[in-house]
Structures are given as structure tokens and as C-alpha cells.
Amino acid sequence: MDKLPQLYRMTKQRKIILDVLRGTKEHPTADWIYEQVRQTMPRISLGTVYRNLRVLKEMQDIQELNYGSTYSLYDGNAEPHYHFVCQDCAAVLDIDLPVYTSYDQQVAELLGSQVDFHRMEFYGSCPDCISGKSTNSKPKMWEQL
Amino acid sequence: MDKLPQLYRMTKQRKIILDVLRGTKEHPTADWIYEQVRQTMPRISLGTVYRNLRVLKEMQDIQELNYGSTYSLYDGNAEPHYHFVCQDCAAVLDIDLPVYTSYDQQVAELLGSQVDFHRMEFYGSCPDCISGKSTNSKPKMWEQL
DNA sequence: TAAAATATAGTTTATATTAGCAAGTAACGG
DNA sequence: CCGTTACTTGCTAATATAAACTATATTTTA
Predict the structure, then answer these.
(1) N or C: which end of chain A has fewer CB within 10 A?
(2) Cα–Cα distance between A23 and A61 in angstroms, integer?
């Protein structure tokens, strides 16, 4: 017997978190979002921020990006788009190229599965790190810290 | 002044971990690998397994897959290939389709960056979960546990 | 509108993974 | 060979995130 669908509510906390995330073009961490939200709602807890980020992701209002580093970044733009990850400074940039939804069909036929969407990430060095302009570059993997 | 390149060694531990991972077609967790390695090297520590998985990834001998779930899976096949992630049972399947390296060039020109490689993951329901055969299916996101 | 059902918040605890450190071991120059 | 250096191990502590639990708030039902 199936369970009934979950009815999500747009609470004060959830709304503020969504607004903070949509208010930036960057891809912030959960902790950065927590600090921002605390300025208007000081008693919110970090656990609530994490929980709501997960719910907002399930509601398809935001995206979670977990590439490259040990922590997740969040993207207030839920529209499908690709990302570039700088392996030197860990920056994540949006890529303004069309999303090839036709692949989903190909993969579905090949596997006999249902494909809802796909993600693509490109890895390399961003312009700032190539030109040596970036100040927070991480050492390359073959260099010792 | 630049640091010298890191000289990795192929130690006993590192070799066994690599062999265990290459010995399976599945995409196991770090903990599963740890249990397997312990059968031939009982005194190895879990931290050493994690450290070597990271080093092997940097040596480009294996891949780390961190999609969908709260833990990473590892892939003994270092050759570029795409993956399918089942959102019902969390299985990760290999996709036998050509890798479109031409995108890397496109993105490099668009961003003015250097692109080394890309990854692509498809999300949906695997054949077993569609037919209701899978025994370890997770509840859908709109269902309450 | 009161009672029942359901979703959420805040807090505490658990989990997966990483980082730091002292001791061991392999590579290298003399 | 012997000492020096650099990489690795096992251990312990730290970190990011999820899960569990209770109390509160919101929605639905009667």
C-alpha cells in the first residue's frame, strides 16, 4: 500500500533560506547561507538550514552541487544547466550552453530505464587561475602543501 | 617558488586496495573495500583505505562517484565513461556510450578556461525498480517514510 | 471552532570522511 | 652501508551533513 504524497509547506524559515540563495549569483555553502539567514532570523539552527536545503532540492526549487570538494555548494537556479569546476581554486561557474536533453532518450533505450534528467560538469583551470590572478588557489594535486 | 612533484609509491596496502576495486564490476563503498582488504591485511585501518582511495584517484587509477547518496562509491575503471543513477534504489550503472570530448573545447572557448575532462550522470529509475523487482528500493521523494 | 492529523523547528546524537601527528619504511646521495 | 629525506601508516581528533526525537505550529476534519 502506497503512502500519500508529502505536502510541503512554505514556512518562514524555508522562505528566507530560498530568498537568500536566490539573492546571490554565487554558489554558496550551507554555512554561508546559515550566517546570512541568521541576520534576519537569529534563532534558526544550522540543522534547519540543512534540512530545508534538502527539502527545497526535493521541491526542485534549488540544486545541490557536490563536486570536487569535501562540502556541498547550492545553486538558486533550478533550471538545468551545466557547471565548470576549477580544480585549482575550487570555484564553480555556470555554463551558458544548451542542455542536450536528447541524451536522456538514448540512455533510456540503452538501459531500458526511465531517465528524468542529467547533469554534466567540466573540470579544469578557470581563467583567473591560468593567469595567476586568483589569490586563493589550491596547490595542484602533484604538489605537496 | 614551485614545489617538486609528489612521488607516489605503490605500497602493499595501496596495491591490495587497487586490486580489490579492480576485481569487481560493481561500484563499492569505501567500507566494503575496507572489509575486503581486511581479509588479506587484517591490521589495515579505515583511514588508510580512505587516504589511498584519494591518492589512487589523484594518480588517475580509479574514479570516485559522489552522486545522489550521502556516501561515495568507487569505480575501478578509470577510463572516462558516463553513469546512470537510480533515484529509487541508489544503484549506479555504467553507460556504454561514447564520451563527447568535443564539448571540452566548446566550454574552454566560452569561458576562456582550460578544460581537462568532464563527467555526465543520468538520473531516473532503473529497470528493476520500474518492474518492481528491486528489493531495496528507497521511497520516492514525494512519499513519506 | 475544537480535536485530530501532519509537517516543521530546534536540539542532540550519529555517520562518512578528512586532517593532524608520531613512528615506520622506502629511496637516495655520499 | 649510513644518514637524510620524503612518503606512508595507524591512530586520534575534527568536520560536514544526516538522522532521531520532542515540542510546536499549521492544516484538515468533524
Answers:
(1) N
(2) 13
